[in-house]
Design brief:
This protein is α+β, with helices and mostly antiparallel strands. It has a domain of 70 residues. Helices cover 40% and strands 16% of the residues. The chain has four helices and four strands; from the N terminus they run αββββααα. The strands form two sheets. Strands 1-2 form a two-stranded antiparallel sheet. A hairpin with a 4-residue loop joins β3 and β4. It starts with a helix and ends in a 21-residue tail after the last helix. The model has no long low-confidence stretch (mean pLDDT 78).
C-alpha cells in the first residue's frame, strides 16, 4: 500500500514538473506584461503624428442609439525649418506634435531624440539629418558652424 502511494506521488510530481516546464517555455515566448502590440495605421505613417492615431467610438444621441464613428487626429500641412539642413520641409503634423517640437527645442532635436519617429516622412528627414551630421564629422566640422541664422528681414545675424 505505501508503495502505491509513493508511485502516485511520483507520477503527480512528474506531471507537475512537465506542466511547469511548459509554462516556463510559454512565458519565454510571451510579450512583456503590460506591453500591447498595436498596429500603426497608414495615415500616421505619412507625417509627424507624435503617437496620435485614428480612434474609434460611438455617437450617442438623445435616443441612445449608438452609431460607430472615428476620432481623427488634428492634422494639417505645415512647413517647418530644419537648422541642420538649412531648409523648410513640408510635413503633415498634428497640433500635439507641434507642441512637442517646441518643447524639445526645434524640428532637428525632435527628429533626432523622439522615439515616435520610426517611419514615413519623419524617418526620411531624420535619415538625411544623420547623413549630414556624419558627413560633417568626417570633415571635422561642427554641424551648426554651417548654419546661418537670419532675422525677420532676411539679413544674416551674428550668434554669440
Amino acid at each position: 500500500m505505501p508503495m502505491k502511494l509513493f508511485n502516485n506521488a511520483i507520477r503527480k510530481f512528474d506531471i507537475l514538473n512537465k506542466l511547469s516546464l511548459n509554462l516556463c517555455k510559454n512565458l519565454e515566448n510571451a510579450s512583456p506584461v503590460g506591453v500591447s502590440v498595436r498596429s500603426v495605421s497608414n495615415r500616421s505613417k505619412r507625417g509627424l503624428y507624435d503617437g496620435r492615431d485614428v480612434g474609434t467610438g460611438n455617437n450617442v444621441p438623445f435616443s441612445l442609439k449608438k452609431t460607430k464613428r472615428k476620432f481623427k487626429p488634428n492634422v494639417f500641412t505645415k512647413r517647418l525649418y530644419s537648422e541642420i539642413l538649412d531648409e523648410m520641409i513640408r510635413f503633415h503634423v498634428t497640433t500635439g506634435a507641434l507642441r512637442t517640437i517646441d518643447k524639445m527645442g526645434g524640428l532637428d532635436e525632435y527628429l533626432l531624440k523622439s522615439d515616435k519617429v520610426t517611419q514615413g516622412e519623419g524617418w526620411r528627414v531624420k535619415h538625411r539629418l544623420l547623413q549630414k551630421i556624419e558627413n560633417c564629422e568626417k570633415k571635422g566640422v561642427n554641424v551648426l558652424d554651417q548654419v546661418v541664422f537670419r532675422d525677420e528681414k532676411g539679413n544674416a545675424k551674428k550668434v554669440l
